[in-house]
Amino acid sequence: MWAKTAFLLMIYLVILASDVPKVMKSRPKERVAYISIMLITVYLGFDFVLGKHWPDLNTLIDYVLKPPSDQIMKYLKPSS
Questions:
Q1: How many domains does the chain contain in total?
Q2: Transmembrane ranges (predicted)?
Q3: Residue 69 near residue 28 (C-beta atoms within 8 A)
């Protein structure tokens, strides 16, 4: 667990050291997008470090897109 935490901290420090000057010069909408993406990666990083099986992006996509896709498949299925 400590190795994973150290690895993630190193990765985030390198990313932030590289991106902070660029982000500070960017427009507010770009900052919001960047911060949103970073928050998602921090959430997934906590999931990785703690070894929990929290909902991830695949679960979210399944939750949102599965019902409409099931309806489309039901509609397209030939009746016999």
A1: 1
A2: 33-50
A3: no
pLDDT score recorded for residue 53: 83
The pTM is what? 0.68
Q: Each residue of 55-78: pLDDT tens digit?
A: 888 888 899 999 999 999 999 988
Q: Is residue 80 very low, low, confident or very high in pLDDT (cuts 50, 70, 90)?
A: low
Return the amino acid letter for 30: E
Sequential DSSP letters for 10-68:
HHHHHHHHHHHHHHHHS-HHHHHHHHHHHHHHHHHHHHHHHT-----HHHHHHHHHHHH
* Segments forming the whole domain that contains residue 7: 2-76
35-49 burial, b at 16+ Cβ within 10 Å, e below that, comes to: eeeeeeeeeebeeeb
- Indicate whether 13 pLDDT > 80: yes
